[in-house]
Amino acid sequence: MNRSQLYGNLGIRLDMAVEAHDVIRQERGSDIPGVKVFKAQHPTATVTTVIVENVQGEQAMGKPVGTYVTIDAPQLRDNNREVHQQIASILAKELTGLLQLRPDGSVLVVGLGNWNATPDALGPKVVDYTMVTRHLHQYAPEELAGGLRPVSAIAPGVLGLTGIETAEIIKGIVEKTRPDLVIAIDALATSSVDRIATSVQLANTGIHPGSGVGNKRAGINLETMGVPVVALGIPTVMHAGIIAHEAIEKLMEQFQTSPTLYKLYKGLNPDALQQIIEQVLGPYTRDLIMTPKEIDQLIQQTSKVVASGIAQSLHPSITPEQWTQYLQ
């Protein structure tokens, strides 16, 4: 049983395009038709761009046609303000490349997630630090130093808190305020412990909130909103099924040093691996999600970096120091 099939059977969906690409490419043993990958190295980060060019690539990847940018920055987890600012600048540059927005275009920033659940609170926390300016254009134009793009922000909560589909709330706001673009921020699920709170994914394809943890919510994209949607996310959780699978794989690798054990391993029924994981996880096979105990601190740090990157991208005339003057 290959990795992608196992993940599918366990109800695990890979939020990050770069991870989905690595799994599929490894299984195929060759490049994926209809998909291109580019890498760029920075002192504090590695930027990987995955472009799904056509339907063939879309079907192979399980991701809509579009551009997916992953910024891997291990130092994002550290409490280093100078490094965080460098990462925010990289984020701003990559985000600007996806926006396709005129200088006076208006933007709605949407913080998806549940503010009562820390691993899911990235979106609402970013909204807390977002530099909102839409109201200033009408009520305090003298405060628009250097010319600021109209930006509004909302944290609409989740279905369990509001009784309303998140997409319905956002659609109503879009119809009323008529932004030229929506930036949706959400917490993601990853298949690598190393990526928790150290990677940022950008995508010009929109987002399906909760998809990585098995919640099927209505999509927030161009088709549903009527305006372009750029998705931005940071991995904060990892599925327990992936952790269990990785542990078994590492154990199996040790069998190669023993011919007898390795022969037993090669004779193992592929379905047995899934059965073992299901037995260990029991009734939570599809629903057990893991996160670090210091996730509250990580959310606090990463949300500021994301908000700073968004501010630099949307308001290029404002310095990082000036950004803090406009916080809510």
From TrEMBL:
Pfam families: Peptidase_A25. It catalyses: Endopeptidase action with P4 Glu or Asp, P1 preferably Glu > Asp, P1' hydrophobic and P2' Ala. It comes from the Bacteria. The keyword rRNA-binding does not apply. The keyword Protease applies. Homotetramer. Autoproteolytically processed. The inactive tetrameric zymogen termed p46 autoprocesses to a smaller form termed p41, which is active only during spore germination. This is Germination protease. It is an enzyme of class 3 (hydrolase). Its EC number is 3.4.24.78. Belongs to the peptidase A25 family. Gene3D superfamilies: HybD-like. SUPFAM superfamilies: HybD-like. InterPro entries: Pept_HybD-like_dom_sf (IPR023430), Peptidase_A25 (IPR005080). Initiates the rapid degradation of small, acid-soluble proteins during spore germination. It comes from Heliobacterium mobile. GO terms for molecular function: metalloendopeptidase activity. Keywords: Hydrolase, Protease, Zymogen. GO terms for biological process: proteolysis; spore germination. Residues 1-15 form a propeptide.
